[in-house]
Amino acid sequence: MALEKENLDLVLVPSGLFIMFAYHLFLLYRCIYRPHTTVIGCENNDKSAWVERIMQVDKRDVGTALSVIQSNTSAATFLCSVSLTLSALIGTWLQTSSDDLFKSKLIYGDTRPSTMSIKYMCLLICFLLGFSCFVQSARYFVHANYLISTPNDDIPVEYVEVAVIRGSNFWSLGLRTLYFAFNMLLWFFGPIPMFASSVFMVIILHYLDSNSRPLHKHQYPGNQMLKRVDEVRS
After folding, report:
1. What is the pTM of this model?
2. Angle between helix 2-33 and helix 191-209 axes, rounded to 10 deg
3. pLDDT digits over 16-64, tens only?
4. What's the pLDDT at 149?
5. How many angstroms separate the CA atoms of 66 and 54, rounded?
6. For 73-97, what is each residue's pLDDT tens digit?
7. Are 201 and 16 in contact (CB under 8 A)?
8. Over the Cα atoms of the chain, what is R_g?
């Protein structure tokens, strides 16, 4: 029976991780080559238009833009703190816990000390990666804040756009590490819950990440006036 449990972990856990990694590689391909089919691509398109419009207004009227950037920075900082706190708790638990809770006979899976250490390490790695991603997200949002609020300076729109979109991408990447951490957490209760969670999570994420609407072509008052002038001339 112990051999069957070990084989179950060796089969279901790598299978669940393969499903998660394969889906996110497929999502990455869509984001790069077919961004209009993903919610991430749609959001980046809207953020690019937002940055372009914000950079056209007077520097004295960018208070709303700075508030938006500040809210994103606060959210990234909060999740960064949460990830770091959970990492510290897992590290402490790894040193002091006797793992009696996860060695119950109700858990059908490998509960040997070496396997439990691997579970803790995988969960810890997920939270540390999430911490790193959220730190980078906050860094880019802070940089965008500086660029937008710089007075009397002709900063290219592309600089601000890159900072905002990279901050948003690192935010999304940090959330993905938390999704992986949730699957790793369920692995403590056996390989079957972990594999089932991976399958259901991929189904839900595919639904949430897909976009069926075409990308919105933002029109600005200046562009509309030029279009009307051209129509009158023609």
Report:
1. 0.83
2. 10
3. 999 999 999 999 999 999 988 999 999 998 898 888 888 887 766 678 8
4. 83
5. 10
6. 999 999 999 998 888 888 777 666 5
7. no
8. 23
Helices 157-187/191-209 angle, 10° precision: 150
What's the full length of the chain, in residues? 234
Residue type for position 73: T
Provide φ and ψ at 102, rounded to 5°. Answer: -95, 10
36: which 2 tokens?
């209009």
* Close Cβ partners of 42 (under 8 Å, ≥ 6 residues apart): 35, 36, 211, 213, 215
Alpha-carbon gap, residue 152 to 161, rounded angstroms: 19
Helices 39-54 and 191-209, axial angle in degrees (round to 10): 50
Average pLDDT, the chain: 83
Rounded to the nearest 5 degrees, what angle is found at the Cα of 22, between the Cα atoms of 16 and 24? 105
Query: If you write DSSP's letter for every residue of 45-87 in order, what string do you get?
Result: HHHHHHHHHHTTS-GGG-HHHHHHHHHHHHHHHHHHHHHHHHH
Q: Which amino acid is at 47?
A: K
